[in-house]
Amino acid sequence: MTDRESGALLLRQLREGRGWSWADLARALRDTARQLAIATLMDRQVASIQRAVARWESVSSQTIPSDRYQFLLVHLYARTLAGDLAIGRGSDFATLLDALRLFGTSPQRVQHLIALVAQGDEGVLSIPSQLDHEEIGRLHDSVTAINGQIGAVPFVRLQLQLAPVVEACRRLLTQDEGHPREELALLAAAAYSLAGRLAFETRDDAAAEALYTEATEVAKHLADRSHRAAIQTSHTMVTLHATDDLDAARMIARAATVDAHRGSSYAIRARAHAVYAEICARAGQATEAAVALERAWKTAEQLTIDDPHGGFNADRLNGFDGLCALHAGDADRAHDRLDRAVSTLQSSRDAVQRGIISTDLALVRLRLGDPAACADLLHEAIDITAATGGRVAARRIRLARRELRPWRTEEFLAELDDHIHDTLIGR
């Protein structure tokens, strides 16, 4: 049961129990952010954090700690002033969780916070100081686990989990004096590119660009060029949706196809051609898009189950094919391909992509003369996007809604607007 006033009182009691002023707690939170490499908070002014603390404890305010601050608070209060872990009944940590529950934090989120602290105590979030094979393997497992949670866990929480790994890679690369061993370069490339994706999803485009640049640079040290091609395909889409700069996106996409053909993975090669095809289609270059798509499909026929870069397949390629057909004005083909893609992308890992493709399919229904069916599909896309937080899908929903303006007096559009506001805007 939500009781914000009681939650605020517990937060104040926690702070005063440690003999801290608002400024003391603000400094402790900033220090914790630096320890955990949370870039968005580690350099914030103490006065700014202090104002946030004051708002949490004010009975007249509706402000509660954001995900990032919750992450810092649980790590701070999970340890005593002497530095000992204390998360059992009667501990400051337990009291903090009670406060968050009173603020309306869901049971799932509370369990996630508990898991994060337990994970940190096992060292997953610690930053190593030595270059060690076992340590690198452990960090690589962390990156894989975080990547596997996309679609099921909010992007900002994944970003928080990944931040210490990114910082660890930077420190370890410094130790290797510009010539990283293969396993470290592989780890850093994966961590930086995933961090770039998460930064984009949380609307930190400058950080995303910097991280993709770091990922591409470190991938130069890898023997298999497929790694760099994979980074570049992701970078292409982030550049496209963050800047709308088709020329810049095309340049990165072209580089990806070159690297992909020098690499070992047919999955990456097929994806590189598919991404290049989408950029061409968006630029109105239908012939070049068709050629790239044909190359993607021919490459997809050579996919094997043991491809270490697996994940891109005919199901995902149908989505690219359908979008290219949509831009080329072939609504029938677009509907066929996108409908196939939506029906096959059903796992939680596919949720972000399913939200995007559902919106594309909605636009196709509109092109085929059925605005009500378009709105019905957008309802589904809205629910998926609200659950995943996908930035690209949210943007496409706005574009699709704009195209429905001629039907502004229809009841189905009023219901759609209510759903958009209640689910995506008014949350």
Description:
The chain is an all-alpha fold and 427 residues long. It has 4 domains: 4-121, no CATH class; 131-223, no CATH class; 225-312, no CATH class; 341-427. It is 73% helix and 0% strand. The chain is built from 21 helices and no strands. Helix 15 runs antiparallel to helix 16. The chain is globular. The two termini are 18 Å apart. Mean pLDDT is 89; it is low at 121-126.
Structural class: mainly alpha
* Overall strand count: 0
What is the share of helical residues? over 70%
Report the radius of gyration as a whole number of Å: 24 Å
Largest sheet report: none
* Fraction of residues in β-strands: under 5%
- Please count the helical segments: 21
The string of secondary-structure elements, in order, is HHHHHHHHHHHHHHHHHHHHH
Taking the alpha carbons of the first and last residues, their distance comes to: 18 Å
Q: Please tell me what the overall shape is.
A: globular
Nearest-integer average pLDDT:
89
Return the domain count. Answer: 4
Q: Which residue ranges are poorly predicted, with pLDDT under 50 across at least 5 consecutive positions? A: 121-126
